[in-house]
Amino acid sequence: MALLYETVPTFEDTWIECLGDLGRYRMAIEDDNLKDREVWTSVSRHWYSKASDKAPTTGRLYHHLAILARPNALQQLFYYAKSLCVPIPFLSARESIMTLFDPHLNGSPTRLQEIDAAFVRAHGILFSGKSGDQFASSVNEFIGSLDGHIARNTKRWTENGYYIAVALGCALLEYGSESNSIMMAIKTSRTEDTDVQMDDSETSVTSQKFLDALDFVTRTHNIVFLRFGDPNVNPYLHVTLSFLYHMSQFPTAIGYLEAKMPWKLISLMLNTLLKECPSVDRIESEDFPRPNKEIPRPLPEDFAQRGLLWVDKYYPDDWFSSKVDDDEKYFEVASMTEERQDRCLWLGCRLASSGNWLTYDKSTRQFGVPPQYDVEVPGVGDGSAAQPQGANDDDVIIPDIQAEGP
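Now predict its structure.
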């Protein structure tokens, strides 16, 4: 197979995936030798990652990577969810993902930390509809431990942060369900090349699964976005803003989300980042904020988001043109801190351009919110000078706002 890969380049993509398959099959039969199993897992992961670089919108490859991610349940959830929320979803993943969820739904013992187990279990309930009576307690357990967990894990949470943010975005899409309100709104808009404005009765028709997911997402946002000045939550913020930016281009789709989103907290997070921003030229420009170097080096969460439905048209065409080794894709370097801040601020400015959810005053260089979202944030006062927050395990409740009509 390796010889075919080298000598028949016409079918290179096929050979690469086949090499991943062979590595996975070899891994599966190495039950007695843990070291050999790990070697073949690494080999298979390398080829599947290479294949996904060439076909980032193909869900099948992320499904295979999910299998190889064991026993990292959070990473498994990320890959399984991603395999269903790309333009070419792998529908068989709807069966495979239950091998991850079933132990948590059945109460079987796992080796996961309690907070991770609660997060996976909540997604399992949302996805399958099983054990619905455990959903509220699972979400409460996750939310109640989240702030302290982030504080203890510090830099280690940067990776978990974008895994969690991607999984939550997929939950809002009901894991790629064609009947999902947001998916239908975007599909309708693209089909007719214009967004169809629904009346109130149509807009309110959303599934309970979506409403539960939305509550789960917003409660998580309300905890994470209170960590002003913590750079370890910025990857989570970046993924969230890219999701909202995409939805903002579809009025009906964002209409399902806008009243629940903690826009005030987001504006305070962005203002905190502005304090570290040496120049606003790049963030105020309509052009994607490229780093000051010839060859772009994507952020770790750029690779994580690549191919997902909500990053369509977000990245420049050449953004992933540089060759980055698999081991280095998710490696954080110091220069990424400033670049990530610029990206978040740029997305904030794009969201603020309409004035519907965020505002941005170029004279004062401050973000704000329209009156309907200008709520008091508990523990922050008026929020004009948000300070970095310490660990706080309390679930902060941001009042729901009824968005005003146009």
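The longest helix spans residues 34-54.
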